[in-house]
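User: I want to check something. If I give you two sequences, will you return the structure for each one separately, not as a complex?

Assistant: Yes, each is folded on its own. Here is the first sequence with its structure:
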Amino acid sequence: MFRSSLVRSVARPLVSRRFVQVSAIRRSTDPIPTPEGSGISTGASAKVTSIVDKVAELTLLETSQLVEALKAKFNITEAVQVVSGAGAPSGGAAAAEAPAEEKPVEKTEFKVKLEKIDAAQKAKVIREIKNLIPDMNLVAAKKFVESAPKVIKDSVSKEEAEKIKKALEAVGATVVLE
């Protein structure tokens, strides 16, 4: 008796509720609404305001096409510009002297990359790779060697990188330090 009354008391409100179906997909022809307060500054000319209003009415696809057309029209490339830091000299002569004072930083960490292997020495290279990478079994080492070029070790010291390079070149592999 108690169970059936509990089921009815829970089921009744669920049946009587009305659910409103909301479409999560916007039509491609509907313009994206602009939030209030994020519009054009008050100092913009009427011409600029009308252009911004027309762009705001475009769909995402049309906006993408507009951007591509503007890039083509004004020969704009997508190159990243590097901005100098606050401590950089601003004068032309001082800017020319700054790089001369700096010594090139010597690289301390290297990537050891297996470029290619000699087919006749493949078995020896596989065994050496298996010895260099502790968690690798023979099958994984074979797949690793066959998928060259591949990074063997990352962020190793210069001495260790040279040691690995010498060992692999001794068994017929081409190794590059990056």
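And separately, the second sequence with its own structure:
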Amino acid sequence: MLLFSRQGKLRLQKWYVPYQDKLKKKVTRELISTVLGRKPKMCNFLEWRDLKVVYKRYASLYFCCAIEDTDNELLTLEIIHRYVELLDKYFGSVCELDIIFNFEKAYFMLDELLIGGEIQETSKKNVLKAIQAQDLLQEAELDMQIR
């Protein structure tokens, strides 16, 4: 999964298939330029190499997933939407700056939602509980360090 801005700046990336760093950069660059080059009214699905690309723009951020040919595009679009709903619920109308300054929270939410590229938890409430528990743990850890 890739999150990038309208200007093409990569904000978050999560890979579920191992690639070398050089290839990751090349794939990322190609995907970003391909998605940004499309007109707003065009379909959110496209075929790219031997994969299907599913993307959706929310405000100034693009959420993009490359899936195998046998995977369901609509389900992937729903997963993207669920992730955005989680980010919105946690940050209160998420924006690009929230992702930039709280990227560890964004990664944690994604890890609670997906594991190995497959949906792990469908309940927004359960994901948010796990995130709140993690926040409490971090606060307790900070309190221990201060003392």
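Because they were folded independently, the notes below concern the second chain alone. The chain has a mean pLDDT of 93. The longest strand covers residues 51-58.
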